[in-house]
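FAQ: What does the model actually see?

It sees only this:
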Amino acid sequence: MKKIKKKYMTGIQSTGTPHLGNILSVILPTIKYINKKKKKNLFFILIADLHSITNYKNLFLLKDNIYKTAAVWLSLLKRKKKIIFFRQSDIKEINELFWYLNCFYPFNRLKLSHSYKNKSNKNINTGIINYPLLMASDILLYNINNVFIGKDQIQHIEITRKIAKIVNNKINKKIFILPKYKIKYNFIIPGIDGRKMSKSNNNFINIFDNKYILEKQIMNIKTINKSIKDITYNDIKKTILFKIYYLISNKEEFFFLKEKIKNNKISFITIKKMLYKYILIFYYKERKKYSYYLNNKYIIKNFLYKGFKKAKIIAKKKISFIKKKLGLNI
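And it is asked to produce this:
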């Protein structure tokens, strides 16, 4: 087997079809990196279905949402041979490592994490409190060098590094390497109402939705209340609509939009229609693939099974090494 230079990972919760924020901040940057890197590098793509359970209102939808999450990745990926694509829940060693990390990490530090603090005024479960350590288990089990994340996940990588240092220092052995993170944007992708784009805020754009739902989402993007005769280029430039258009479109399309705004009086409705048409045209093939995979779920299952077999071999070897260093092998 060829020696691996570096290992990369990213993970997406299986809470349904990944929205535009997920795609722009994590999925597409990861895929771009996969396409340009050498064969000796290894890429792990994890469907974080265990993470999804921490805030699940309808568990009956979980299976369907796993398929939807996988279908988006498969629709956008071109070089599928370079990755190990698998479900978190299939790898029992992740849960075993999760327990070990729980025994080393101070509880009071977990209470400082965003995943807990942002929900501390609600009725939360212990899964939410332990969320960062489960994420750390995903990463540390596979000796990951770099993790592709959105800006809101930076703290979780910092926690992963901290727990790795704690274990290494406690055992006086280099059990874990310290992962680094890679982010595409140093800001949160805005939703159609200006807040962080998320399903919980119900302010997302799903480029894989049917045409009518997608159009409704785009038409609901928040703008400013001005008549067309009073709208200036600077007014449009400050809107969420302009930012979303910039993030999703290519340079030529965005330049065309800017020139159109500068040279003509253009309504927000017209810009929204342009954005809608651009998505339908630019992601035409991916939208067709997405429907194809969901109508042929056996392809998704086979792909996940192949990834599971590869991920399992690596996980068993690493957990055996960890147990030996912890003194659990007799």
